[in-house]
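Please produce the structure of this protein holding uridine-5'-diphosphate.
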Amino acid sequence: MGLLSVIVPCYNEEENVELFYTELIKNDPFFAEENVELELLFVDDGSRDGTVAEVKKLIQRDERVHLLSFSRNFGKEAAMYAGLENAGGDYVVLMDVDLQDPPSLLPEMFSYIKQGYDSVATRRVSRKGEPPVRSFFARMFYRLMKKISRTEIMDGARDYRLMTRQMVDAILAMHEYNRFTKGIFGWVGFRTKWLEYENVERAKGETKWNFWKLLVYSVDGITAFSTVPLMLASVMGVLFCFLAFAMIIFVIVRKLIFGDPVSGWASQVCIMLLIGGVQFFCTGILGQYLAKTYMEVKRRPIYLVKEKI
Ligand code: UDP
Ligand code: MG
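Below is the modeled complex.
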């Protein structure tokens, strides 16, 4: 029926490569029956441990395994993009190497593609094993995004997704530098089937994300898929104009009736500080979008390849 490309971004995952491969090839009988050939593309995102060596070991054993190695760490978004660009499959699936995206789901996912869906996506319905503070902010992020963006971004969605060639080409047509794949998937549309599963803890090693990185990533997501924050500045500007107008009338009337213009030093300082704060806040929002635009117009490559096998 065709070729299935499995794209696996890896960053310092030497302990997981072999484990992942063993889990994945458990699906071989299923795909043989379906007449689907497999191609495995490990994208090494500039790992500094033995990840590349582990993948090369697999390449010697199995000719379906390929490697794309970056010149440095470019981030998972870049790794996924590189994988999609280099995949030759009629179907493409993106999955993590730490087994948090269970390969055992693949047969079910594939069955939906056969039913005519363009993509089968996964989301975790629980976040057990994750720090509560992180879960809380993650939920807040998705709720905010729902309000300020027209692109559908599903709460708990993973990057684990099986797609047809048509959808992959649509994603590749989006050349943006600031890539927020969770949004890009929603933006391109197509008919998507969602599968839900309980969170699985990673097999070996530790997550590459900390709170700060996630916060920065969420700002990337907001600036990439919403311009509502920019509008916020205008709205606040109008609001403050009305407020100022009311205050002017109040001050004039008070002067005419009581003739006492020199009081209220405290309130004046408060107002000045408030307006100062709001101004910095709005300039900050502008700065965020300007920074993204700046990076975008530079047109730097999204990733650089050091080795390709
Ligand atoms: N990853 C990557 N580049 C990075 C960070 C992570 O290619 O800069 C890969 C990592 O090897 C893994 C996947 O992206 O296969 C998900 O990373 P991680 O498990 O750290 O994220 P989490 O599952 O905690 O969201
Ligand atoms: Mg993980």
